Amino acid sequence: MLTPSVKIHRSRSRSRDSGGWLESRHSFSFGRQQDPMNTHFGRLLVNNDDRIAAGSGFDTHGHRDMEIVTWVLSGSLVHQDSEGHSGIIYPGLAQRMSAGSGILHSERNDAWRDGTIQQDPAHVEPVHLVQMWVVPDEAGGDPGYEQLEIDPGALANSLVVVAGGLDTYGDEAAIRIRNRTSALLASRLAPGHTITLPDAPYLHLYVPVGSVALEGEGVLETGDAARMTASGGRRVTAGDDGAEILVWEMHAGMTMLDVRGH
Fold first, then answer.
1. What is the rounded distance in angstroms from the CA atom of residue 158 to the CA atom of residue 168?
2. Which three-class secondary structure string do you get for 30-41?
3. Rounded Cα–Cα distance for residues 228 and 5 (Å)
4. Is 107 part of any domain?
5. CA 179, CA 164: separation in Å to the nearest integer?
6. For position 118, which CATH number holds?
7. What is the number of domains present in the chain?
8. What are the phi and psi torsion angles at 230 (to 5°)?
9. How far apart are CA 252 and CA 255, in angstroms?
10. Which range of residues forms the domain containing residue 49?
11. Is the Cβ–Cβ distance between 179 and 67 less than 8 Å?
12. Residue 256 domain-assigned?
């Protein structure tokens, strides 16, 4: 039996990496920033809020045994991997990479496409994204990739299932992840609009843009998160400038902290 709890994690408490071309804030232990008391929540291992400068990005690197979901908030990102998949990820496009037994990929600001910064202003701005990793149900298997555009109207003032496992939302999810009991939901809220969060053993609410009032807990500003255990079903109301929210609904916790893909 889970004990009901809500833990608020403020943006200022998150670890940070800044390399000139990259501004990254981590919700959990990541890379050189390790905290044994903050390794995951539910089955969510990584929630990185990244800003990548034009003409820059992550060069080819590897992952394994991880479901990696990327949600772009502004700008656009180029993905290429060792399985031959490529795509441009932009706001409202759901993207998932299953690392499986091993995959190499790169992620760069869209300005990189022809080796020079494009003159079109749409391609010279930093790309702002949130990348999230969850543990798959089984290790190994073939790597995979999927992306699908979501109707902007569907995201307005309602929760849309961006990525889901078979046991959570089935075919309702825009893209499928290899984690049967977890799902990522997203919404763009107009000022003052209220929605109700799902009820699940574990909920991770992240506010990458704007601010919201979480019922019973107060205001969450940009970059804040709430980790809710057995405390779902609460109302969320957008602040005066509106908000974009990302919600991980998880019906199982971590049975074994497998971070081989980290």
1. 17
2. ECCECCCCCCCE
3. 6
4. yes
5. 8
6. 2.60.120.10
7. 1
8. 50, 40
9. 8
10. 5-250
11. yes
12. no
Predicted confidence at residue 181, as pLDDT, reads 94
CA angle 98, 137, 87 (to 5 degrees): 15
What's this model's pTM, rounded to 2 decimal places?
0.92
Identify whether 67 is part of a domain: yes
Contact 162, 73 (CB under 8 A): no
d(CA 173, CA 184): 9
**pLDDT tens sequence for the chain (262 residues):** 899 999 999 999 998 887 788 999 999 988 777 888 889 999 999 999 999 998 888 888 899 999 999 999 999 999 988 998 888 999 999 999 999 999 998 998 876 454 444 555 555 788 999 999 999 999 999 999 999 999 999 999 999 999 998 788 878 899 999 999 999 999 999 999 999 999 999 999 999 999 999 999 999 999 999 999 999 999 999 999 999 999 999 999 986 444 444 4
* Tokens describing residue 73: 């908030």
User: What is the secondary structure of 98-154 as a DSSP string?
Assistant: E-TT-EEEEEEEGGGTTSS--SSGGGTSPEEEEEEEE--SSS----EEEEEE--HHH
| Both tokens assigned to 14 | 């998150």
- Sort residue 202 into left (φ over 0), alpha (ψ -120 to 50) or beta: beta
Distance CA 109, CA 255 (A): 36
Residue 260 is assigned to a structural domain of this protein: no
Q: Which residue has the tokens 């290429």?
A: 80
